[in-house]
Amino acid sequence: MKYGAIVFPLVSAAGLTLLSACNTIEGVGRDLQRAGDAIEDEADDTRDRRRND
């Protein structure tokens, strides 16, 4: 069996995995950003309530 017959499918599979991982990581990044925004909003609300008490 030729070396290229083994390497090409492996490299192709690795490339496809990395491309799909990019989309997954991008989605996780958006989710983390939204979670951070929600935490920041709650912290701001809590600070404002404490100032008004």
Descriptive overview:
- It is a single chain.
- This protein has 1 helix and no strands.
- The protein has 53 residues and is mostly helical.
- The longest helix is centred in the middle third of the chain and has 50 residues, at 3-52.
- The radius of gyration is 23 Å and the shape is rod-shaped.
List keywords for this structure.
single chain; 53 residues; mainly alpha
Order of helices and strands: H
Regions with little confidence, pLDDT below 50 for 5+ residues: none
Biggest sheet details: none
Give me the Rg, rounded.
Answer: 23 Å
- If you average the pLDDT, what whole number results? 87
Shape: rod-shaped
Number of helices: 1
Helix-residue proportion: over 70%
Count of DSSP strands: 0
Distance between the termini: 78 Å
Which strand-content bin applies to the residues? under 5%
What class do helices, strands and sheet pairing give? Answer: mainly alpha
Write the layout of secondary structure elements.
Elements (H helix, E strand, L loop, with lengths): L2 H50 L1
Q: Summary?
A:
The chain has 53 residues and is mostly helical.
